[in-house]
Design goal:
239 residues, alpha+beta, Type Iii Antifreeze Protein Isoform Hplc 12, six-stranded antiparallel beta sheet, two-stranded antiparallel ribbon
Length: 239
């Protein structure tokens, strides 16, 4: 008899829990349905709005339209009018279906600079040929030795220099004149490299780039570099 009472009690508790779960689910469903059918207006992108594109241009291109969403789906800062951002510019790409929010727009374009300059240093850029840039193996974050070649000599200008950015490669026409006066024009690719340097070293590189030809030597943690080495015609074939 006692066992039967226990089983009946357990069954009653389980039934009560089941009823409670169903009640909570139904109430949640009712709330979700209420949010869904309590539609409110918002502005949405219907075509891609590119970073840097003005609101006026996006509107003229039919990229922004008013739409209805459930009250629970509306973003807190979603706009219903473009008046507040009519003269502004998209700071990021806005994809179709996204609600238009003011924080994604501003008067000026978003800064695209990601250049990080090491502490106490300044950034300068130099243009190097393919051979001068180690055939394209130099990348941001690498450490290089800078050699300067001029007047028949090659000197070690600086060691342990950090490359903080690599720009685009362009083709430059270079004309050379031999001893007979004959001229030869070559199309040479050159790449812009940005370096992080202390002021005096930066001035040294700028001066050397003006008076001589610069080349990089790519290094790693095991590289051995002697800054005081100068090679010219006198010691070219000696050690």
């Amino acid at each position: 008899m006692d066992r039967r009472k226990v089983l009946l009690t357990v069954a009653a508790v389980i039934a009560g829990l089941g009823t409670l779960i169903v009640f909570l689910y139904v109430r949640g469903a009712d709330t979700r349905a209420a949010d869904q059918y309590n539609a409110v207006p918002v502005l949405k992108a219907v075509k891609v709005i590119n970073a840097g594109e003005s609101v006026a241009d996006a509107q003229a291109a039919g990229k922004i339209e008013q739409s209805m969403v459930g009250e629970g789906d509306r973003l807190p800062d979603a706009l219903v009018s473009l008046d507040a951002i009519s003269t502004q510019i998209a700071q990021t790409t806005i994809n179709p279906g996204e609600q238009i929010v003011g924080v994604k727009f501003a008067v000026a374009p978003a800064s695209t600079s990601t250049l990080t300059i090491p502490k106490k240093m300044i950034a300068i850029s130099v243009n190097l040929t393919d051979t001068g840039r180690v055939a394209g193996f130099v990348n941001p974050g690498d450490k290089v030795v800078i050699f300067a070649t001029g007047n028949g000599a090659t000197a070690t200008l600086l060691t342990n220099v950090e490359v903080i950015a690599v720009g685009t490669t362009t083709v430059v026409s270079t004309t050379t004149t031999d001893a007979t006066g004959a001229q030869t024009t070559e199309q040479l690719p050159r790449t812009l490299f940005t370096l992080g340097l202390l002021q005096e070293d930066a001035q040294r590189v700028i001066a050397a780039a003006t008076a001589s030809e610069l080349s990089f030597g790519l290094t790693n943690k095991d590289s051995v570099v002697n800054k005081n080495v100068v090679v010219d015609g006198k010691n070219l074939f000696t050690k």
